[in-house]
Amino acid sequence: MALQISISDSIVQALRLPEQRIEQELRRELAIALYAQDILSFGKARELAEMDQYEFGRLLAQRKVERHYGLAELDDDLTYAHVISRNVFLSGLVSSETKDA
């Protein structure tokens, strides 16, 4: 299910943003607000904001929004760290095999 929100032209015109940044900024602001109120998880809020984990985490820190960090988030972070470390390890193997060839 997709949801579209209609915003009147007068409000859109009153926004002090370049037209090409309006949707992006509104997505980010909505994501921050919903995360801060514990309505969306970190993962879903960053998905709404169309940002990766690191970028969204930095944005929350800039806005002084505390992270809601529980066991689910710890599990997500450990999985992410495992995937990253595996990719780094595998890319190291590939580059060393390429050098040896």
Task: Supply the key terms.
mainly alpha, 5 helices
Description:
By secondary structure, the chain is an all-alpha fold. 68% of the residues lie in helices and 0% in strands. It is built from five helices and no strands. Helix 2 packs antiparallel against helix 3 (42-49). The chain is elongated.
Strand residues, percent = under 5%
Span between N and C termini? 51 Å
Instruction: Compute the number of strand runs.
Output: 0
Q: Over all CA atoms, what is the radius of gyration? A: 19 Å
Query: What is the overall pLDDT average?
Result: 89
Short description:
By secondary structure, the chain is an all-alpha fold.
Secondary structure layout plus pairing:
Elements: H1 9-14, H2 22-36, H3 42-49, H4 53-62, H5 71-100
